Amino acid sequence: MRRAAFASLLVVATAACADADASAFAGDPYGEPLTLTEVTPISTILDAPEEFLGERVLVEGQVVAVCEERGCWVDIASDRQYEKIQIKVDDGVITFPLSMRGRQALVEGTVEKLELTHEQALAAAEERAREHGETFDPSTVTGPETIYRIRGIGALVRDAAATQ
Fold this sequence. Notes:
The chain is an alpha+beta fold and 164 residues long. It has a single domain, classed as CATH 2.40.50.140. It has 4 helices and 6 strands. A hairpin with a 6-residue loop joins strand 3 and strand 4. The N and C termini lie far apart (44 Å).
């Protein structure tokens, strides 16, 4: 009986901490105000992306890349090493500045799935290479590609001084 009560208390306390962490996050706002308070780990989304399709989520992580042409997307590092998820916003509705790179972000949006044909995957890989100033090697694209990302509606980005 005591174990069950303790386990219930632990679950409630953990949920409260996640809510408090998200609501206490202060930063520069982009887009719409955030409405969710519970952060979903990026690794959880990437482990079972089909379960999150169409769901609104709140994610947190370090910004590891920013669209250099229009500021229309950012890549957020996962809570698990070597993983990231892209946050794509409507062009011109939200513009992410390059100065976001390296800062901590809290982002809300809806999980979506893109299914690219081989030709579309080739074009996307070529564009990524061009954006990053890299040489494009078409042999690295071997077939169709499925991409899971978040269609962002709003974000808070911590001041660079607050992330150190």
